[in-house]
Prior knowledge:
This protein is an alpha/beta fold. Helices cover about 40% and strands about 20% of the residues. It has a 7-stranded mixed β-sheet with strand order 3-2-1-4-5-7-6, sandwiched between helices. Helix 7 packs parallel to helix 8. It is globular, with a radius of gyration of 17 Å. It starts with a helix and ends with a helix. The model has no long low-confidence stretch (mean pLDDT about 95). It binds S-adenosylmethionine. S-adenosylmethionine binds near residues 79 and 150.
Amino acid sequence: MTPETLQLLHEGAAELGLDLHASEANFGQLLLLLQEGNARFNLTALKTERDIVLKHFVDSLTCLRGGHLEGTLRVVDLGTGAGFPTLPLALVRPGLHFTPVDSTRKKVDFVRATAQSLGLENVEPVAGRAETLTRQPEHREQYDRVVVRAVAALPILAELALPFLREGGLLVAQKGPLSQEELRAGQRAAGELGGQVTEVEPFSLPVLGDARTLVIMEKQRPTPAKYPRREGVPNQQPLF
Ligand code: SAM
């Protein structure tokens, strides 16, 4: 990582109240592994050091806003792609145990290999679709948190994520700007699935200033057994 990019990483982290000096070598290694992975499998659209550091690393760390990811928790990362937000979060929160999930096996293989190279024992990736995994007793209503970034609109996320959560668990959804229409649909879907939207926090991405919203949904009752619907249906026919 160039000194300029490293400076941006520290600046972005400092805006979030984080000091990354102890883990800067790990973030440097993650950058290299991602660039190598990109050259082989075209994993993410972001290619420059600056974009990867600000729009993947710092952006992923914004999930820590609000203090919902502290202590020892079992966390699913729904639709992790090349490992975001899991990998940056796992580097700075060794007490959290992450299960990054993705339907694309090559991405899950990359996340597993990368976590191993970084010595992250708190990351155990799983390949599969949320609709199918949440029908399995080892995944249904077993987790304290679901984190998600850039996967789907709020009502779809509610159907895919809430079945993973135990009662009292939280969905931490990191989104761009959020319309009132999407929020209303998400609130209705959460109610149908045993949850409720408890926080909506607009904020700006450190350094770049892009608009972001952190949406928190709390699981309050068991999700009805008919949810989630079969693979693909939550996306094709959102509940609300
Ligand atoms: N979260 C990552 C990030 O922020 O860079 C990746 C975002 S990417 C746009 C969305 C990912 O979600 C894709 O890798 C896709 O395979 C995965 N995905 C979408 N629907 C899914 C589902 N129902 N179950 C599991 N993975 C899903």
